[in-house]
Amino acid sequence: MSRQKNLPPVHEAWLPREHPLHRPRHGRRQLAALVCAVLFFTAPLVSWVFGARPAQLENRPLAAFPSVTDGWGFFTGLNAWATDHLPFRRQAVQSVDALSRGVFGEPARLDGGSHTSPVGAGQVDEKPQIDENVFPAVIEGKGGWLFLGHDVSYRCVPKRSLDEVIAGLRRWRSVVEASGRKFQLVIAPDKSTVYPENMPDDYAGEDCSTRAREEFWKRVPRETGALDMRTQLRDVAARNQRPIYHDIDTHWTHEGGITMAYQLAERLAPGTTSTWKVRPSRQYPHSADIPDLLGQDRTVPIQAYSLAPDGSDVDNTQFKPSDFHEPLHLGSPPKPGMITKPMRMVGDSFTQFASPYLAATFTDLTIVHPDQVAVDPAATGQLLAEGEVVTFELSERFVAGGRYPMLDPAVADRVGAILAAHPVR
Q: Same domain, yes or no, for 186 and 264?
């Protein structure tokens, strides 16, 4: 107690420098760190004032400015926002990659960070911390092929066990079918699953991702009734004599989307596709998503198709670009070869390559993104209740990694309660 009474009545930083208890309020290192932090967080705002706009490098929306209502989440969210909105970020990524290749002879380990993941998808990524030196954002395969690093990392470091994933998918089937609706589940395979021969001979996570992939495809189709399209996709590729996935993009081609449309229609009404006539139509360039992670702007050629479900020469496709975060409705008058039962669909970026052909073959279709399901289960329930058929298209990497928030059975139960209140008889 006597020692406390002898303490000076002012803050130690205000004592004379020669005083033995003097401590600077901010040392030089602290001051430098403070200046750097201020520059980091204010640079996006200053550059925006002078006309600079952030470039989207990954196939996801730029991180939004955090809300003050998020509590401590406001401060933790600032890092993701500032990183995404830094000016000249693309040039910085390109420089880092070029330096790594020139000095070390290998691509830079450019991980997308711990916020929203690329592809698809815009999926909410709350993954455990992964060593970016072990799991790179981009895997360079053979013959110039590029693969998304999350094909490997999500399998090796899942958020949910495979048992939990299967339980979540089974719960969805249960609540949908209990309401009298038909339930269809499609798992869009990863490119690394369909073309493992184009992966490098040796890469980080090869053993754990291979084991997880084999277990996933062994169990999920059998235990959930999911449509396994791996064989059909390879058959279509062999018939057309070209890969059904883009070499530098993570998605399948329009031929993959057409294959999915065929499989869904045949499951609902076997034989209905016998009258379909598919022909090549326009070609256009598509910005590839994987090179974006390396700061590169590269395109792949897209071959689109016309589809006449009645076998005529009249194209019935509808090309309406959408990420499905706002529900997209596609409707057309019924024709022979079309499915007339209203279908409500949960689908991600793979469905973007299928939606023109689903629009050509389903008279009443609405698609919403998987992220929106957990964000607003009530709205999702109302949307799905409009359909007699409920179809899910989900990406393998996000299912295998347990990354979809909608895999929580509680989300299925909330939507299921609304479906139960509006049964199909």
A: yes
- The DSSP H or E segment spanning 187 is strand 182-188
Q: Which residues of 128-165 are buried (b: 16+ CB within 10 A; e: fewer)?
A: eebebeebbbbbbbeeebbbbbbbbbbbbbbbbebeeb
- pLDDT of 135: 87
Element (H, E) at 383: helix 377-384
* Long-range contacts, 410-413 (Cβ 8 Å, 24+): 411/373, 411/374, 411/377, 412/168, 412/171, 412/172, 412/174, 412/175, 413/171, 413/175
pLDDT at residue 15, as a whole number: 66
Q: What does the alpha-carbon distance between residue 407 and residue 19 come to, in Å, rounded to a whole number?
A: 62
- Indicate the burial class of 208 (C-beta count within 10 angstroms; 0-12, 13-18, 19 or more): middle
Per the structure block, which two tokens stand in for 45?
Answer: 């705002």
Our count of domains for the chain comes to: 3
Q: Quickly list DSSP for 306-370.
A: EEETTSSS----------SSS-EEEE----TT-B-S-EEEEE-HHHHTTHHHHHHHBSEEEEE-H
Where would I find the H helices in 20-161?
A: 28-49, 73-84, 89-104, 150-156
Q: Which of the residues in the chain have pLDDT under 50?
A: 1-3, 57-60, 93-94, 96-101, 103-105, 112-130, 132
Co-location of 254 and 373 in the same domain? yes
Helix (H) or strand (E) holding 138: strand 138-140
Q: What is the pLDDT of residue 101?
A: 44
pLDDT digits (tens, 9 = 90+) for 46-91: 555 555 555 554 444 556 666 656 555 555 555 565 555 555 555 5
Final residue of a domain: which of 52, 84, 116? 84
For residue 124, the model assigns a pLDDT of 40
With CA atoms as reference, report the closest residue to 121 among 94, 82, 148, 152: 148
For residues 357 and 393, the answer to whether their CB atoms sit within 8 Å is: no
Q: Domain range for residue 107?
A: 89-154
Verify that 289 and 336 share a domain, yes or no.
yes
pLDDT at 123: 43
Residue written as token pair 């380990």: 109
3-state secondary structure of 134: coil
Environment class of residue 396 by beta-carbon count within 10 Å: exposed (0-12), middle (13-18) or buried (19+)?
Answer: buried
CA distance 407 to 403: 8
Domain boundary among 36, 63, 84: 84
Summarised one tens digit per residue, pLDDT across range 202-237 is 999 999 999 999 999 999 999 999 999 999 999 999
Burial class (CB in 10 A: 0-12, 13-18, 19+), 214: exposed
